[in-house]
Design brief:
By secondary structure, the chain is mainly α. It contains 4 helices and no strands. It has helices at residues 4-31, 35-61, 65-80, 83-119. The relative contact order is 0.12.
Length: 132
C-alpha cells in the first residue's frame, strides 16, 4: 500500500501543475495584445465545440453499436482493475501529464517573452538625452 502513495502523489502533483499551467496559458492569452480577437475566437470555437459534441453524443447514444461498445468497455474495465494494468495506466498517465505540462510551460514562456518584447519601451539614444 505504501508503494502506491508516491505514485498517487506524483499524479496529484502533475494534475496540480497542469491546472496551474492551464491557468497561466489562459492568463497569458488574455493579456496578449490581440486578446480581444483571441477571446472572440475562443468563445466562438468553444460554442461550436459544445454544439458539435452534444449533437454527436445524441447520435452515438441512439446508434445500435453503442450497446456493443458499452459491453466492450465493461469488459475492459474488469481487466483494468488488475493491479498490473493500474500501474501501467498510472505510468502512462503520469508521462502524458508531464509532457503536457512541459509543452504548456514552453507556450507560456513563449507568450511571456513575446509580450515583453512587444511592450518593451524604446530608449532614446540621442546625444541630448544622455547624461554628460
Amino acid at each position: 500500500m505504501s508503494d502506491e502513495t508516491p505514485h498517487e502523489e506524483n499524479l496529484s502533483q502533475e494534475f496540480e501543475a497542469l491546472g496551474k499551467n492551464l491557468i497561466g496559458a489562459i492568463r497569458s492569452a488574455w493579456e496578449a495584445p490581440e486578446s480581444k480577437r483571441l477571446r472572440d475566437d475562443m468563445t466562438s470555437g468553444l460554442g461550436d465545440l459544445a454544439s458539435t459534441l452534444k449533437r454527436e453524443a445524441d447520435n452515438l447514444a441512439s446508434h445500435p453499436t453503442t450497446q456493443q461498445l458499452r459491453n466492450d468497455v465493461s469488459q475492459l474495465g474488469e481487466k483494468v482493475k488488475a493491479p498490473e494494468a493500474q500501474a501501467a495506466v498510472r505510468r502512462e498517465l503520469l508521462s502524458a501529464l508531464k509532457a503536457m505540462n512541459s509543452e504548456l510551460e514552453k507556450l507560456i514562456g513563449h507568450w511571456t517573452s513575446a509580450d515583453a518584447t512587444v511592450e518593451k519601451p524604446v530608449e532614446d539614444t540621442t546625444p541630448s538625452s544622455q547624461a554628460e
